[in-house]
Amino acid sequence: MIPRRQRDPYMDSVTSIYILVLVPVLAMNTTMSTPSTKTLDHIMHLTPPGSVDEVSQQFRDLGFHVLPGGTHAGGLTQNALVVLQDGAYLELVSFTHPASHYPPGSPERQQRDAIPWAWKEPGWIGYTFLGFSSTSISELINARAKKNKSGIRYDPEFDGGRERSDGKVLKWQISASSQDSGRFRAAPFFCGDVTPREWRVPLDPPSNAEHPSGVLGVAYVRILVEDDDLSDVTADITSVIGGSPVSHTSRRVTWVLDTPSTDVAGGRPRLIISVPETEDERRTLEGRGEGIYEVAFFVSSGMKAGQSWTPYGKIVWLKE
User: Fold this and answer.
1) How crowded is residue 311: how many other Cβ atoms within 10 Å of its Cβ?
2) pLDDT value at position 134?
């Protein structure tokens, strides 16, 4: 029989300290070292210059509760907001003036022309994931892309912001995929708040996210790409999200995203990358190029169903 070893009170105390103090710290550091890069922040809908008030009414007619936004830093663009119960929102954005308003070569014209979506047609023009002002999203994604040998690259973060209609000044940092990488249209932007996110996304009072249409949250964002690009775009988005898709066929690839606040009835939003499946989708791809084709929303049972159109973009209503 092997004799029992006497317990050492000193070693017991050291072990207790390790368990109570060091283990939680190590776990926290592990979590903090890899922030999520798949949290849907907002979806952008562009309309012609000076049309924010008009498009706000158009979205109200579709059953959305539209909130005033403000003017972005530099005064070149302005927006209105549709906040959702999952914490994501729609940005209804337009340029303040057409390009012809600014003399060719003027600083304002150069700044306007440098905006990534300055040359896009009206409609759904982009989607944004939630970033972190304290962490370089571009460095994180570029390291993944290098390891995965995907072609996407993100430019370094730059400052952004806007002034709300109540005078409050918001600040954030933006990172976008490099236009030189050729993958610009299908990839998300990232927005990391410097000022509190609730200043940018007014979810309080809760009635701000209550809509006559019964909309609860985003069900999916569907992006059309050329047949020959599907494989490369899949590799790119895998590097961005940091995980493999939940489904993958020769025509359609799907990831499950996170939301800033909470999951709504119906589930979490999905990002779908697909090739055209109808003649209308083929014509849209040929006319607009790769990018968002449709956005779907979860709606309360007994409310909207089927599909609708903004003057420039397709909406799908899915019952919870």
Assistant:
1) 12
2) 81
